[in-house]
Each structure stands twice: as structure tokens, then as C-alpha cells.
């Protein structure tokens, strides 16, 4: 049987085509993960989010994700617990410092995780807020009965060392009856009073929320090196200080003060995960209009 040149050429081309198709399919099989499988599963939402209050900054922390293909985290913020959270930053760490804040203003934070395929989780479910406040270090106050009484008192609101008897003085130091004491200044006994409380041997950073009770009735506390103390001023602001050194002539303290009236937050805020009891649980969704994430 004769085979024409045209038929031979066709058979040769067809065989080459079949071989090429087989090679492509074989290559695709060898690279199945890259060419056939598309990851559309987002990571779990970050958990354990909390903040640490600073002076002109807020540090945000969260627990690390256990996802094997985790790429990083995105930080969002808002000025209210609900509504649209605005994107702020991306990081591969489990903490972030927000320095674009104003002391006395409250900020709300949420975290998402994203993987190498670009899938992003829902926002973290904790409602976490923080109100940064001023702080100071190595403040020296002198005995109000000594020669440096002009430097015995302190006004938290203006960060000013001054005479103990001035109306704006919040606390002042004295060596009285053989004891080193800090006295709550109350020039108007018939009006609201400044309160003070000994928190014991605790670092200043551990005094996170001013307590609702336990204030001394005497209006003064004995000072002990290594102790921290709460202050509740008569104009409804909370503060705290830590005694670094004390002797009859003077005391040296570190301090912090919340300028947001009535806000007892002094260090960190961590609220429990919502939704476990069926209340307040919400699912964040992307908001194309705002470019943020809405709760």
C-alpha cells in the first residue's frame, strides 16, 4: 500500500502534537500545587489582642498565628467601637506601636491576618480601646516644711512643681512626725476631695485601672521605696506614681496621669472576646466604599 507524502506529513505533525500535549499534562501533574490548587481559605482571626498605654503612643499586642502559610498581619483603628475600621499598617511581628495619637483621645484597634495567597482573615473579635496619657520620670518633690517648700507640690494637669498650698496643687510631699508622707491637697474640704491610695510593692506599669474604692480616709499615705500609689484628683482625673527614692528632705517619683476626665485607664486595656456568650458578636466585612473594614 502506498503512503502519500501528504499523509506522512500529517501523521508526523499529529504525533508531535500528541507528544506535546502529554508533556504539558505531565508537567502540570508535577506542579499540581502551583497550577491546579488555588488557596482561598483565609487564616483565623488573631486572638489575645491588648494594648499598653503610653505617653503619646499606644502599643498593640496579639498572639501569634499558627497558620503554616501565614504572611503577616494588618492593623486597623477607629475612633469608636463599631463602624468602619481604617487600615493603618502591615507587619510580620505580633506587636505594633501607634505613635500617631493624641493624649486624652480614645482609640479602638483590631487586627487581621493574611497568608501568602493574599487571603485575609476577619478582624479580631476583641473590642480593644486605649487612651494615651502623659507620664514623667524622676520628679523630685521637697518637704513642704523645709527650705524648698516652693517645690513641694505637684499639679498633674500642667506637669508643674509648685508651692504645696496653691489651689491647683494635687499632691505634696512632707516629712511629718518622723514619717515621709504624700498628702492629697484639699484646699476646699467642703467640696470634692483629692484621694490617694497605696498599691503596695508593684511596678508602675502594673497599675492599669484606678480602683473604685479603697481610698485612704486620712488624705495622706506613708511613702515606701518600691511602692506605687493611685491618685484621684478632685477634678475627676486619675493618676499614679512610683517611689524610686525617699528621705526626709525629698522624694523622687515616676508618674502618669490620665487627662481624659473620669477615665481610670492608666496602663493597658484588654477586653474579653465577644460572641462566646452569644452577645455582641459581629463579622467584619470589607467595605469598598471606605477602603476599610466594617464591624
> Portion of residues in helices?
10-25%
Structural class: mainly beta
> Would you identify the regions where 5 or more consecutive residues have pLDDT less than 50?
268-291
Tally of strands: 20
Largest sheet: 6 strands, antiparallel
Element-level helix/strand string: HHEEEEEEEEEEEEEEEEEEEE
What is the overall shape? elongated
**Which value, in Å, is the CA radius of gyration?**
32 Å
Report on this structure.
This protein has 295 residues and is mainly beta. It folds into 3 domains: 31 residues; 109 residues, Immunoglobulin-like (Sandwich); 130 residues, no CATH class. It is built from 2 helices and 20 strands. The strands form 4 sheets. A 6-stranded antiparallel β-sheet has the order 7-6-3-4-20-19, with no helix packed on it. It has a 5-stranded antiparallel β-sheet with strand order 8-17-16-15-13, with no helix packed on it. Strands 10-9-11-12-14 form a 5-stranded antiparallel β-sheet, with no helix packed on it. A hairpin with a 2-residue loop joins strand 11 and strand 12.
Would you summarize the structure shown here?
The protein contains two helices and 20 strands. It is mainly beta and about 300 residues long. It folds into three domains: about 5-35; about 50-130 and about 270-295, Immunoglobulin-like, CATH 2.60.40; about 135-265, no CATH class.
Amino acid at each position: 500500500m502506498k503512503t502519500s507524502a501528504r499523509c506522512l506529513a500529517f501523521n508526523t505533525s499529529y504525533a508531535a502534537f500528541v507528544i506535546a500535549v502529554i508533556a504539558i499534562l505531565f508537567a502540570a501533574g508535577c506542579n499540581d500545587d502551583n497550577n491546579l490548587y488555588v488557596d482561598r481559605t483565609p487564616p483565623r482571626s488573631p486572638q489575645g489582642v491588648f494594648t499598653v498605654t503610653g505617653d503619646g503612643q499606644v502599643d498593640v499586642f496579639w498572639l501569634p498565628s499558627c497558620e503554616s502559610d501565614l504572611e503577616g498581619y494588618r492593623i486597623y483603628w477607629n475612633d469608636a467601637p463599631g463602624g468602619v475600621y481604617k487600615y493603618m499598617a502591615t507587619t510580620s511581628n505580633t506587636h505594633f506601636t501607634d505613635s500617631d495619637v493624641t493624649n486624652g483621645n480614645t482609640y479602638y484597634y483590631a487586627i487581621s491576618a493574611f497568608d501568602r495567597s493574599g487571603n485575609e482573615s476577619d478582624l479580631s473579635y476583641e473590642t480593644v480601646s486605649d487612651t494615651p496619657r502623659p507620664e514623667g520620670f524622676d520628679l523630685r518633690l521637697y518637704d513642704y516644711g523645709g527650705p524648698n517648700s516652693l517645690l513641694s507640690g505637684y499639679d498633674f494637669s500642667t506637669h508643674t512643681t509648685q508651692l504645696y498650698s496653691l489651689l491647683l496643687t494635687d499632691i505634696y510631699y512632707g516629712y511629718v512626725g518622723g514619717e515621709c508622707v504624700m498628702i492629697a491637697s484639699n484646699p476646699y474640704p467642703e467640696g470634692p476631695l483629692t484621694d490617694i491610695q497605696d498599691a503596695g510593692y508593684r511596678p508602675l506599669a502594673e497599675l492599669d485601672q484606678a480602683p473604685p474604692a479603697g481610698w485612704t480616709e486620712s488624705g495622706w499615705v506613708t511613702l515606701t521605696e518600691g511602692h506605687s500609689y493611685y491618685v484621684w484628683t478632685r477634678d475627676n482625673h486619675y493618676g499614679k506614681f512610683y517611689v524610686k527614692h525617699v528621705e526626709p528632705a525629698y522624694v523622687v517619683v515616676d508618674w502618669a496621669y490620665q487627662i481624659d476626665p473620669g477615665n481610670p485607664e492608666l496602663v493597658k486595656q484588654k477586653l474579653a472576646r465577644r460572641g462566646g456568650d452569644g452577645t455582641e458578636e459581629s463579622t467584619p466585612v470589607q467595605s469598598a466604599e471606605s477602603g476599610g473594614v466594617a464591624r
